[in-house]
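The following block was generated as part of the benchmark described in Methods. Ligand: zinc ion.
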Amino acid sequence: MKSHGYAAHDKTSPLVPFNFERRDPGSKDVVVEIAYCGICHSDIHQVKDEWGGSMYPMVPGHEIVGKVVAVGNEVTKFKVGDLAGVGVTVETCMVCDNCRAGAEPYCTKGMVGTYNAKTYAGEITYGGYANNIVAPEHYVYTISPKLDLAAVAPLLCAGITTYSPLRHWGAGPGKKVGVVGLGGLGHMGLKFAHSFGAHVVQFTTSESKIEDAKKLGADEVVITKDAAQMAKHAGSFDFILDCVSAPHDLNAYLDLLRLNGTLCLVGLPEVPLPVGAFSLVTNRRSLSGSMIGGMKETQEMLDYCAERNIVSDIEQTSVQNLAEAYERVVKGDVKYRFVIDMATLKS
Ligand code: NAP
Ligand code: ZN
């Protein structure tokens, strides 16, 4: 199947137009004509090879929405013309304990990412900065026509990555929950934690985001550079979701957890972060992490969003403006997710 999109050819050059081939759809596959693709900070980490092991040419993008244009003869959930989404995962073993439990990102054989990964058959995967994508039905989601399609795209990664740990650790009424970093993931974490009924405190380095944080559902906002504001919350949180993309001091957040509280990392800085033993043993605290979410849970999240009218706050951009968009994401200067209008591929 012929595809075209934008690719990085090394870790420093700008992304450029790229023609490539995807596998022809098989009996269980769905082909989606991509309308919009979100820009996740993970795209930038991988384009710049900040985690190591990047494979070029790389077509990034794992927040994909569009229309179904073809289905294999064993596909039951989709027909041509339906809206559909593809997220971070396109293949897992489906038989290990984790896959069977609906925890496919933790597949013991290894989950195959939508781009910058190799399928079990050894093909390189290419992502959503492109006109189309083919994926097995199991990894394709139903999208409600009720919501603004462009603003749904970020739910496929930023949405599920924050929804899943907030559900797992029981964010809800009577719980004090913190969200660190008001970016693409952070603003979705804030919306979900608020929607689940928790008392939510948004942590940010950016004074310019205080008013937005309140509008997005924060009961309180803490400027993290202000030691007095941080100290006021010492030992008080049940759960803190850390959505920061760059190195920062974890101990400052561990110190804010109450007895049995948990700090969960979803942000993926490129270097290890030091943790003091005293920050953990005090109050029997836990430090944990979470990766995206399972297929069933992702659909549940999308349905929850359709019911509650929850989408991302987005700025639309074009394939021609990727370099500027990346620069602004790195500066924390986007409200709060860029989404590429894939119609711009044609201009
Ligand atoms: P983003 O939109 O760039 O947001 C990151 C936010 O972190 C910024 O808006 C900023 O918030 C804060 N921040 C940035 N640099 C900082 C620094 N030096 N010190 C303190 N705070 C800083 O990124 P994103 O797309 O939300 O992604 C966030 C991270 O999650 C990335 O590392 C990404 O790779 C990772 N991720 C993980 C998963 C997973 O499955 N676990 C899935 C997707 C993404 P303020 O301006 O409010 O301070
Ligand atoms: Zn992502």
